[in-house]
Amino acid sequence: MMQTASIADNISDVLVKIIHFTQLRRRVLHENLHRADEPGFMPQDMPVREFAEALNVAVAEHLQNRRLLFHDTPHVTFGPRGMMEVRPVADPHAHALLGANRDDYTELQINKLLENCLNRRVAEELLRQKCGAYADAAGWGPGQSFTGDSSRGPSPADRDAAD
């Protein structure tokens, strides 16, 4: 199992990984909705519990030994310079729903998208508060939104800081 020490700012590194994971998961869930009519389509999801456990282990290591160490799992691989690869897994529950009740399948996918969006927004806000802007490590410049939606306006924290 590969072990990789991470960048010095441990909290930011964890948040960037959560944001990246939620972006990947959004793509997979979006595809589940758009490809549902294809014959033989098997819905997928990201290994959410596996990813959460990998982060829990890394944070526990940090608390105990003051270093952030990520351990690879069967579907999540960590590499140098903050690299992380996550492979989707089949979702047999969603597949069974797709065959039995299309409305329930669609509702499941939408609920997963909403949960994922909330997780991403919380991580983005925590990272913004920690760094003052979104980290370049995630592939965006300072102050850019991960959603590409600049119409949201200032956040409550931005308004509080201005007061």
Descriptive terms for the model:
single chain, 163 residues, mainly alpha, two-stranded antiparallel sheet, 6 strands, 55% helix, 10% strand, elongated, disordered N terminus
What report would you give on this structure?
By secondary structure, this protein is mainly α. It has one domain. Helix content is 55%, strand content 10%. The strands form three sheets. It has a two-stranded antiparallel sheet. Strands 2-6 form a two-stranded antiparallel ribbon. A two-stranded antiparallel ribbon has the order 4-5. α1 packs antiparallel against α4 and α3 (92-100) runs antiparallel to α4. The longest helix is centred in the C-terminal third of the chain and has 30 residues, at 102-131. It is elongated and about 50 Å long.
Helices and strands in order:
Layout: E1 3-5, H1 10-34, E2 44-45, H2 48-65, E3 69-71, E4 76-78, E5 84-86, E6 89-90, H3 92-100, H4 102-131, H5 156-162
Antiparallel strand pairs: 1-3, 2-6, 4-5
Number of strands: 6
Please provide the ordered H/E string of secondary-structure elements. Answer: EHEHEEEEHHH
Write down the overall mean pLDDT: 82
The level of helicity is: 40-55%
Structural class: mainly alpha
Largest sheet, if any? 2 strands, antiparallel
> Based on CA inertia axes, which overall geometry fits?
elongated
Radius of gyration: 18 Å
Q: How many helices does DSSP assign?
A: 5
The total domain count is 1
Q: Give the neighbour order of strands across the main sheet.
A: 1-3
Q: In percent terms, what proportion of residues is strand?
A: 5-15%
How widely separated are the two ends?
Answer: 50 Å
- Unreliable sequence segments: 1-8, 140-163
